[in-house]
Amino acid sequence: MVESTQSHKITIVDTQAYQDQKAGTSGLRKKVKVFRQENYLENFVQSIFLSLSEEEYKGKALVIAGDGRFYNDVATQIIIRLAAANGVGHVYVGQHGLLSTPAASAFIRKLNADNGENYCVGGVLLTASHNPGGEDEDFGIKFNSKSGGPALENFTNLIYEHTKKIQQYRISHLGNDIDLATIADHNLGKVEGFDHDFRVTVASSTDIYYDLLKTLFDFDDLKAFVSRPDFRMVFDGMHGVSGPYAQLLFQEVLGVPQDNLFRCNVLPDFGHGHPDPNLTYAADLVKTMGIFDNKEDAPDFGAACDGDADRNMVLGKNFFVTPSDSIAIITANYKSIPFLKSGISGAARSMPTSGALDRVTEKLGIPVYETPTGWKFFGNLLDNNMISLCGEESFGTGSFHVREKDGVWAVLCWLSILADKNRGTEQLVSVADIVRAHWNEYGRNYYQRYDYENLENADADKVFKQLESQMSVFETESEGNTAVNFSYTDPVDQSVSLNQGYIFKYADGSRFVFRLSGTGSSGATIRIYLEKYSNDPSLVVEEALKSIAERALSASQIQQLTGRERPTVIT
Ligand code: G6P
Ligand code: ZN
């Protein structure tokens, strides 16, 4: 214990409000230089405290997490000082400021499980997820509540209201920066105006998370499988915060050779990469796995996580598993995953995620929920045990173990399925074998997403106006066609979310969906989701989707209205 007996003074600083601190789907994301403006971070953090009631945090605990991106360390020290001055009793921060988003969720939940459910008010997560990092790139901040999940919209709106009119914030200088490199408990003594001692614990980034995973998976069994001579796995940390977790779990615990872990050192600029695990940005892994050009010697299993380690991409040898298929297959094979073996209550997917999951839940006779995009919409369903598993097309998969999606967890689910399917096999049952068997049983939801990034806002508006005008045209075009502007009523608290995207659906369930991204940091991004169901699993994806893609383009006039001949990214 590092002790201090002095009483720390508090300064109340006059500040000017910023008008642009409205959080998107997952917190406030802006360029680092925006965050470095005078008092920008301080205003936002003080607004979090202003949005809570004092008894929620006074003398209580707060977790500060970070994905290691540029400014993570500076911001962590600032937030510790604001927390002290606002009366927080105990700040928990990961070593080097690092805690993945799912590990932060686990951390908050563990503190409350051990100390009473109102002990930890929640967490401040310093991440812009999969957005690039570095001095000229993105930084981000979001608040997670005491359940470990992202704050709901009414709360983030409240923060925004405070940011627009904030005049003062409280800070305590505490002397030196906290040494984030060393795991230690610091008792900093009293802070002016409060009776309690202010403490900071620099904790292992991985321990609590690993302890949780041990209750979900059978690591001995996984180790035995992973060491099969005919099985080789690789993992790409993309220089994000999954690295330390991968090194512990895959290398130390499961025995995967160190050379098979790529880019697992956390870098503030993610090595100039775009830490988003998809076919475009994880190009090296995609090449190693022979996804676009079959390779005889490709590894049998490959995976990657994004900057804050909540997203995942799963690949087999020469084989890409779409995220929509991934959640469907994990659900269908729940009996292969130790912590789900005894049964699952239901499952959920975001609206643009393919209906592959629905075919599984139907067969299992369990409910499926279709939620708007954004992990927070799963929170109530998870809290009330209405679902055990959930997933999104945007490379997110998770369960009730935390209140965030979880990249490393998803990898362990896949390894558990592989281990189970390979019990006693002479020849390896591969990822592709598992997916093909799934398609043979359930049919296949062919799927693609077109992203038009960084459009002029006015052009994006025109596209959605045009779509609105085409809804009735589409509906009369063919028997059973429907076109709706998706809205969602939360089955637990009855809150309503409107305007969550346009769904143009054919009688057989095939569809195209348009929605505006909620995570971009500049301009507008339109996403088109194409989906075609077929009993024949052997079609070429582009061929299967051709006519739907053409209809989506003609309905929206996106090329004409934006001047973009083709999408920025197709996944
Ligand atoms: C974040 C959220 C996800 C969501 C995704 C959508 O990653 O955590 O839950 O699916 O954003 O991003 P978009 O850019 O499509 O709004
Ligand atoms: Zn993320």
Automatic annotation (TrEMBL):
- Domain Alpha-D-phosphohexomutase alpha/beta/alpha, which positions? 21-169, 209-315, 324-429
Protein name per Swiss-Prot or TrEMBL: phosphoglucomutase (alpha-D-glucose-1,6-bisphosphate-dependent)
Q: Which UniProt keywords apply?
A: Carbohydrate metabolism, Glucose metabolism, Isomerase, Magnesium, Metal-binding, Phosphoprotein
Cofactor(s), by name:
Mg(2+)
Under PANTHER family, the record lists:
PHOSPHOGLUCOMUTASE, PHOSPHOHEXOMUTASE FAMILY MEMBER
**What Pfam families does its record include?**
PGM1_C_vert_fung (PF24947), PGM_PMM_I (PF02878), PGM_PMM_II (PF02879), PGM_PMM_III (PF02880)
Cellular component terms per the entry's GO annotation? cytosol
- What is the species of this protein? Stylonychia lemnae
Record EC number: 5.4.2.2
Q: Which domain of life is it from?
A: Eukaryota
Task: Please provide the Gene Ontology terms (biological process) for this protein.
Answer: glucose metabolic process
Instruction: Please name the PROSITE patterns in this protein's record.
Output: PGM_PMM
Q: Which Gene3D superfamilies match?
A: Alpha-D-Glucose-1,6-Bisphosphate, subunit A, domain 3 (3.40.120.10), Alpha-D-phosphohexomutase, C-terminal domain (3.30.310.50)
Q: Which residues form a coiled coil?
A: none
Q: Which InterPro entries match?
A: A-D-PHexomutase_a/b/a-I (IPR005844), A-D-PHexomutase_a/b/a-I/II/III (IPR016055), A-D-PHexomutase_a/b/a-II (IPR005845), A-D-PHexomutase_a/b/a-III (IPR005846), A-D-PHexomutase_C_sf (IPR036900), A-D-PHexomutase_CS (IPR016066), Alpha-D-phosphohexomutase_SF (IPR005841), PGM (IPR045244)
Its encoding gene is what?
A: Contig15194.g16184
Gene Ontology MF, one: magnesium ion binding
Q: Which reaction does it catalyse?
A: alpha-D-glucose 1,6-bisphosphate + L-seryl-[protein] = O-phospho-L-seryl-[protein] + alpha-D-glucose 6-phosphate; O-phospho-L-seryl-[protein] + alpha-D-glucose 1-phosphate = alpha-D-glucose 1,6-bisphosphate + L-seryl-[protein]; alpha-D-glucose 1-phosphate = alpha-D-glucose 6-phosphate
Q: Which family does it belong to?
A: Belongs to the phosphohexose mutase family.
| Higher taxonomy | Eukaryota, Sar, Alveolata, Ciliophora, Intramacronucleata
EC class (word) = isomerase
